Amino acid sequence: MKTRIVLLAIGFAVFLFVVSGVPTFVNLVTDWYWYQALGFDSVFLTELLSKVWLGAAVAGVAFVFFFVNLRLAQRGLVPNPVVLNVGPKVPAFNVTHVLRRLSLPIALLLGLLMGLSASGSWLTVQRFLHRTPFGVADPIFGRDVGYYIFSLPALSAGIGLFIALAVLTLFMTVPVYLMRGDLIVRGRHITTERSAEMHLAVLIAMVFVGVALNVFFVRIPSLLYSQTGPLFGASYSDLKVELPALYLAAAVAVVGAGLVLWGARVHNLLRYTITGVLAYVAVSIVGVALLPAAVQKLLVLPNELAREAPQLEHHIQATREAWGLADVATRDLTGEATLTLEDIQANRATIDNVRLWDRGPLLQTFGQLQEIRTYYDFVSVDDDRYWIDGAYRQVLLSPRELNSASLPTRTFINERLTFTHGMGLTLSPVNQVTAEGLPVLYIKDLPPSSSVSLSITRPEIYYGELSNDYVFVRTEQPEFDYPSGEGNVFTTYEGTGGVPVRSFLRRLLLSLRFGSKDVFFSQDINADSRVLFHRSIRERAVNALPFLRLDSDPYIMITDDGRLKWIQDAYTSSTLYPYARPIADRTNYMRNSVKIVIDAYDGDVRAYVVNSDDPLIQTYEAIFPGVFLPFEDMPADIRAHIRYPEDLFAVQTELYTTFHMDEPDVFYQTEDEWQIPVVSRREGARDPFRRHIVMRLPGEEQEEFIFMTPFTPRQKDNLAAWMVARSDGDHYGELVVYRFPRQSLVFGPTQVVNRMNQDTEISRQISLWDQRGSEVIRGNLLVIPVRESLIFVQPLYLRAEGGRIPELKRVIVAYQNQVAMEET
Q1: CB-based burial, 149-185: b 16+ in 10 Å, e otherwise
Q2: What pTM did the predictor assign?
Q3: How many Cα atoms within 13 Å fall on the side-chain side of residue 270?
Q4: How many Å apart are CA 400 and CA 446, to the nearest integer?
Q5: What is the pLDDT of residues 565-621, one digit of tens each?
Q6: How far apart are CA 18 and CA 271, in angstroms?
Q7: What confidence tens digit (pLDDT) does each residue in 357-406 have?
Q8: CA distance 475 to 414
Q9: Closest Cα partner for 476 from 412, 418, 415, 410?
C-alpha cells in the first residue's frame, strides 16, 4: 500500500514536471540559441545567473530560518501528545511525530517558493550593486537621487523579505505549540510554556523591528512621492506633521519590540504585545493619517501658496531636471517682423521642404499605387531627410513588408519556407505632386528602382514592423523574392541572421518551441538551414534589451551602401525621482540614452549610447558589459539619420506648457500656462501640430531637420511660443523655445483655420468638391516659421467616394491677414 502511494506520488511529480517544466526548458534553451546567435548572450546569462543566485540565496536563508524555527518549536518531550484515531482499521498516530517529519519538506517548499518569488527582483538587486550617483541631492534629506532610484527599491524588498520570514514563521509555530500543548487557550485565559513564550516573543519582536526599519528606510523617504498638496512630492503637512509622526512611529515600533521581549520575561507576552500594537496603531492613525489631513485642511489650504512655496520650488526644479527641461534654451521673438520676398528667397530650403503630404493620406496612396501584390503591406510612413542630388530634402518613406496573413494559400511551406520577406520601400519628397495630384516617387516598384542619387542594394526585409512570425531560410525550398511579369523571381538567403538548425536535437527543440510537427518532419529543412524568429523590430529590441523602454515609432533608413536599417529609440526610465511630476504610468524620469540599430536583412542589433551622462545607462553598462557601443562608433551615414524621439518630445512639450513657469507664485496661479493647440482629430491619431520639418531656425545659417510644436495660452487661440528639438550634427538633442511677446497678437492655428473657412472663394470651392461622389480631406495645418514670421499651410485632398487614393488638389497658405489657395 505504502509502495503504491509512493509510486503514485513520484508519477504525479514526473507528470507535473513534463507538463510545466519541459516547455520552460525548451523556451530557455532556444532563447539561449537566439541570444548567442545575436551576440547578446551576456544579457541572457546575466539575467539567468542573477535569478539563480538570488533565488538560491533567498531560498537557502528562508529554508534554514523556517527549518530551525520549526525544529526549535518541537524540542523536548510532549507530556500529553495529540493522538488521532481515523478509524478502527487504521492505527492511531501521534500528531507531533508527523509534524516533526513534515518540518523538512515544509521548510524546503516554503524556501523554494520564496526563492522563486525573490528571483524576479534580480534587476533591482543588480542595479543596487552597480548603482551610479546622480550628483544631485534631494532638497529634504540631502541624499543623492541615486539612493531613491537604486537603493530604495532594494531596501524595500529586503525589509519586506525580513518581515515575511518572521510573519510566516510565526503562523507556522503557533499551531505547532498548540498541538504540543505548549500553548493552551481556555476562553480568555492563555497559558504558555516558558521556552515557547520566549520563542514567540523573539518572532513577534522581529516583526516590530521589521516594521520600524520599513518606516525609517522606506516610508519616510517615500514622502518625496506624496500627492497630498498641489504638487508631487512632500508637501507642508507631510514635512511638518507626518514626518515627525513617522519618526515617532518607528521609535514606537522599536519600543514595541522591547516590550514584547520584556513581556516574555515577566510571563505576560499577550498583554505587552497588544500594548505595543495598540501604541503603534494609535500613532499611525492619529499622527500619520488624521493629524496631517487636519493640518492640510485647516492650516494649509487657506494659505496654500505661502505654505507650499518652498515645496513648489522643489517640485518645479525636480520635474525640469527629471524630464530634461532644465537646459531648454529660450529665445525671444519680436512678433513684428514683416515677411518679404527676400526672406522667402533667403529661406528657400524651408519653403522647398514645406510638407504637403500627411502620413495618413500618403499611406493610403502608397498602398494603392505600390503594394503591387495582396501579400505586401505598407504599415507606416516615416519622416527623414537625405542629401538628394545636392539638395537637403525632407522625404516620406514606407517599407513594403510581407503580410503572411494575406497569402492566397496559407500552408507551412508557403508561410514558413517560401514567402519569407518583404521587398524594398517607396520614397517620396514631402512637397512634390504630379499633374494628377499624386506623390512623386523617387524610389518605387519591384525590384526597387530610383530616379535620384539614392539607391538600394539590399532591398529584402526579413525584419520589420510587421514581421512577427518565424521562417526558415536556406532550405531546399526556394524563397520567393519578388514578382516579375508573369513569373516570379526566387532567391536564397545569404545573411548571417537567425539560429542555425545544425543538429537533430536543435530541430526537435525548435519544433517544440514553435508547436509545429512540420518543423520536425519537413524534408526541406536541413542542417544548413537557419530559423529567423523575434523578427518584429519592437519584439526583437524588447528581447535583446528587456530593461529599456522603447519608443512607439521605429523608422527605417537607407545607408550609403544601399542597405536598409531600422532605428529604434530606447529610454532609461524610473518612477522614483523625488519631487518630479509623473505621467499616467507613474514614470517621472526618462532619458533617450540608447539608439538601437537593427539591420533589415541580417537582424543584427547594435545598441549605441547617445547620452553617456545618464546614471541609469551607466549602471546598465556596468551590469551588461560589452552590450552597449559608444556613440562615436555609430557609422556616419546612420548618425546622419537619427532624430529626436517622438514619445519623449510629446511628454516634454506637454509638461513644458506648465513647467516653463519657474516662479512658485506664477506656477501656482497658472498665470502663464500654455497648451498645445486643440483641434479635432481621430482618437489615437498623432498630434497634427507636432511635426518634423526641414527649416532654417531664426538666427541660424543653415537649414536642419527639427521636431516642432507650437503653444497657445491656455483657453486662448493666439500663438504664445513654439518649441523645437534639433536632430542634426552637434546640435542633436537641443531643445529651444521661441517666445512671442505677451502684449502683441500673433495669430494661432484655430484663428487661422477660422479665417480660411471664412474666405468665400475657399469655402465655395470646398463645398463644390464635397458633393456626392467625392470627399474633401483637409490635411493637417502646418505652422512654418520663416525668420521671425509665421506662415500657415494646409493641403486639401480629394478622394472619390469608395476610392482609396487621395489626390492633392489645392494648398491653402495664410500669412497675417492674407489667405490664398493655389494648386501648389
Answers
A1: bbbbbbbbbbbebbbbbbebbbebbeebbebbbbbee
A2: 0.91
A3: 8
A4: 10
A5: 999 999 999 999 999 999 999 999 999 999 999 999 999 999 999 999 999 999 999
A6: 52
A7: 888 888 888 888 888 888 899 999 999 999 998 889 999 999 999 998 88
A8: 13
A9: 418
